[in-house]
Amino acid sequence: MNRDLLRDLYAAVCAALLVLTAVLVGRAIQHRDGSLRVDWPPLLASWDPHVGPGTPAAVIVAAVVVVYGPSLAVRLPWRPLLLAVWGAGMAWTWSLALVDGWHRGVAEQLTTRNEYLRAVDRFHDIPAALRDFTGHILIGSPDSWGAHVAGHPPGATLTFVLLDRVGLGGGGWAGTWCITVGTTAAVAVLIAVRTLADESLARRAAPFLVLAPAAVWVGTSADGYFAAVAAWAVTLLALAVRGVRPGPYGFCSGLLFGLSVYLSYGLTLMAVVAGAVLLLGSSRRPLLFAPAGFVVVPVLFTMSGFAWWEGYRVLVTRYYQGAGGVRPYGYWVWANLACTVLIVGPATVAGVRRAVVRPWLRSRLRQDHGDLRLCLLVLSALLALLFADLSGMSKAETERIWLPFAVWLLPACAFLTGARGWLVGQAVLALLLNHLLLTGW
After folding, report:
1. Taking each helix axis from N to C terminus, what angle separates 329-365 and 3-33, rounded to the nearest 10 degrees?
2. Among 256, 289, 364, 440, which lies 20 to 30 A Cα-Cα from 107?
3. pLDDT tens digit string along 223-277?
4. Beta-carbon contacts of residue 316 (< 8 Å; ≥ 6 apart)
5. d(Cα 322, Cα 315) in Å, to the nearest integer?
6. What is the pTM of this model?
7. Residues 278-312 pLDDT 10s
8. CA distance 67 to 51
């Protein structure tokens, strides 16, 4: 066994110990005073070993990707590869969601008391709802919003309102939307890695973007959809700064960045990843167009009566009115990282280890390779995630909340050797999570 592989395994074992510690310490705290507000810390889940209609499909998809994924990723032409990644990612995510059955796994996920669809009927007059949105954020205010509606800018809820308006109402269509759009994030990440770093690295990362344990929460949570919007914003910016249609792509990137911060307040931290992309680019022309695109969504919402900055100010108070005011920062500031291990898997932990070490090794040789560019992209996402962690505004439930950052950690798996072995580890973790636990999404 070579030294690098041994160090990778050490990193994976340390990550597993972090998860085990978070489980044991979390159970002790939860048993003592219930302050964690989750049933199976560090995840919002409950212990419920089960199988379902999606079980055979999930096992088959995992086996096919493990056996054929690495070789197909090398041989397929680029565009068919992107379609294959999306298709395989859809199959993987749908099969995992259907382990819990159609109703429990998909159709009912976004219809529970704190979810977005409960507020759709209150948006029959959209301008009026936006004007009054901030007034219903606080607990105790008249007709206060449920936790997820209150915890996000109105763009999140408005998505499902618009789906309802075009005849795609209800939990089934909402879940289908989140899975269909959410799984495109892998395609966006591959395009960005190819554009900013190297096509061979993107191809090596492709199977890992398919079999990511994060798929457990992409199907079905709205945060999977948010992750895709943010991922395409980054990717369009990457294309623009590398000289590919800098005007149109720069504008569209700004438009999606503007939309993303009206889907989730926390997505303002994607600015860290965007900054890395700008550093890796060769063209500054997009800086003329991206800001113009960015202001479109904020202007529309502000003119409609919703002030983002005011909504966030009130949200901070609401956060501490609810579970956020009870959950102990001293536990979650490190247990959140255990959640991250579970959504990205042991292979990504080992890949990130290599991404951290590689720049130091290469700098001694004074070389600039595609792998260094990928390191910067991965480490920028890690930095954004750490900022989110230290803020204290993401105590628990980060297995879904941090999906937009986690998808940019997955390409670090391109640095690994022995891809099939690592893919097995990724698949087994996802299957165990989905079959042993009943997650909140």
Report:
1. 170
2. 256
3. 999 999 999 999 999 999 999 999 999 999 999 999 999 999 999 999 999 999 9
4. 393
5. 11
6. 0.96
7. 999 988 888 899 999 999 999 999 999 999 999 99
8. 24
